[in-house]
Design brief:
about 240 residues; mainly beta; 5-stranded antiparallel sheet; globular
Amino acid sequence: LSQPSKNTNTSPASFVVGSVKDIHLVSEKSFFVTTTDNKVVYFENDAKKWEQALDGSINGTGELISLYANDKTQLLIATDKKIHVFETSGQYAGGFPISMVDQTIVQAPVFYRWKGNGFFIAPVEKGRMVQFDNQGRELTIIRTQLNSIEMQPVVWVSANKPFVGAMGENRFEMIQLENRKSFRIFNANNSEVVLKLPNEVKLFGVHHKQLVAYDQRGGLSKFDMTTGKIQTDRKS
């Protein structure tokens, strides 16, 4: 990629309406903008500091991370073939971008920390996920029982163990990250959102005017938005 172009005279208002994809606030006076034509732009004190065009379509929305758990913030953003981690200076974090030679990224990657170290998980084809360290080095391939992954993975801690959850074909699979073994898989029809709670995750969706919610054991609760009644079908 070419070096980010510099321009300190352009304000956010100069964007044509509809070109902004997402805005990621770093502070009250600084933020990243991603655009529908696959650019990353950084603003500070109402001025554009730099922009970078990506050679591919942005996968998902991107997210702000703290790669080294210090007071610095980076933007994690991916296309189908590269994982980018931009510093606010416009430079890449060490080891990035990651180029995917033999795999194609199918959903936005996720960043997490465990025991003081940072890791990335990128979902790729055939229900697999690739794990990297915080310097962009590939560690392992995590295989699931799914044929495809259709949502961004979620990483959380339950019972003092790290898990990654993958959703595809209306099923949700929990995998222990330390041994990369499948822990549980269950049907989770109509799930659209995964919410991390203390020590657990829940999956939510709407079906036939009912709010449906699954806990991480596969237990199903339904809330009828018309009558207000709750129906629960818990699994042990």
